[in-house]
Amino acid sequence: MVASNPDWFFGYAWLTVGLFSGIVSLLASFWVTMLARKSGMIVQPGERQSHTIATPTGGGLGILLSLLLTTLCLQPLVPLPGFWWQGMLPGIVLLAIVGWRDDRQTVSSFLRLLIQLAVSLWLLGFTTLQFLSVEIGWLVAGVVAMVWYMNMYNFMDGSDGMAAFQGIFAGVMMAVLFHNDERNAMALLALAVAAACMGFLPLNLPTARVFMGDVSSVPLGFIFAALSVYAVKAGTFGLPVAILIMALFIIDATMTLLARVIRREQWYTAHAQHVYQRLIVHGWSHRRVLVVYQAINVAVVLPAIVLIQKYPQNAMLKSGSTILLLGMCWYFANRRLGMLDKVQKK
């Protein structure tokens, strides 16, 4: 089989999948943007928004359409495991349907939570084959983590290029780690996700002409959570690395939520209190915020992942130290930006 040739796989397959997924995502995102305009899917500026002009939303549907088409074309050459077709894809489709509806007309938070719980249970149940084979505590923890990944990714989709660039970073990291573990099909799947996010970027940078929207931000959180579940179960990389790959989003979203709970705010309501949002309110451009976040990924997170993969001893300690460092940066940034002050638009 041609895909069994390592040189062919690493070269032509990666290039072909990357280009195909990226180009399809770009074209699909353009089409969805026009559809969003015609459908009146426009987000108006407000105190909870980091933008000052009315902008279409839902453009991230192009990312998911690209991913679906890419995997369909990939299947005859490098068959993807049932984990994708039966475990991940049904959840992605269901989340996308609910997200598209929510982008058009608000869906109740209770219904969204039920759907997120359902797809998490389905994926974890498929992964472990039988719920009875898993301790209930681990199952609950897994479901909670997956639901948080979905909402976390959605929360962090509020600045030009932020969610798409994190998708590129996480997708490429997972693709390399899967490839190093000789799980070529999953490597190409992760690469297709990264390339699809890159294809969306021209519509989201330097100034957003369309927002990603719930239709894809929530499914992307689910995708990266699911890929982490697969990797940890397969032994490709451990939980410490899985946490680090999404560390920036985890820290900003989680610590912001905890801070709101401590301040006895209505933590479950929309807000603009994440560090990246505060920086924009204080005069930083979207581009500058994006550069800083991704510089941290490259200068701090990436070396920590490489170190753990090369020297796996005390992996949790190394991961925890990195998380602690990022947490301290979050604290001092918020303290400087006025964490206790009410954030308002200038």
Q: Give the mean pLDDT.
A: 88
Strand percentage, roughly? under 5%
Neighbour order of strands in the largest sheet: 1-2
Global shape: globular
| Low-confidence runs | 342-346
Number of strands: 2
Order of H and E elements: HEEHHHHHHHHHHHH
Helix count from the secondary structure assignment: 13
Fraction in helix: over 70%
Q: Can you give a write-up of this model?
A:
By secondary structure, the protein is mainly α. The chain folds into two domains: 10-41 and 50-232, no CATH class; 238-346, no CATH class. The protein has helices at 6-38, 61-74, 82-104, 109-128, 136-155, 162-180, 184-200, 214-234, 239-245, 247-262, 275-281, 286-310, 315-337; strands spanning 42-43, 55-56. The protein has a two-stranded antiparallel sheet with strand order 1-2.
What's the short version?
By secondary structure, this protein is mostly helical. The chain contains 13 helices and 2 strands, in the order H-E-E-H-H-H-H-H-H-H-H-H-H-H-H.
Keywords for this entry:
mainly alpha, 2 domains, two-stranded antiparallel ribbon, 13 helices, 2 strands, globular, disordered C terminus
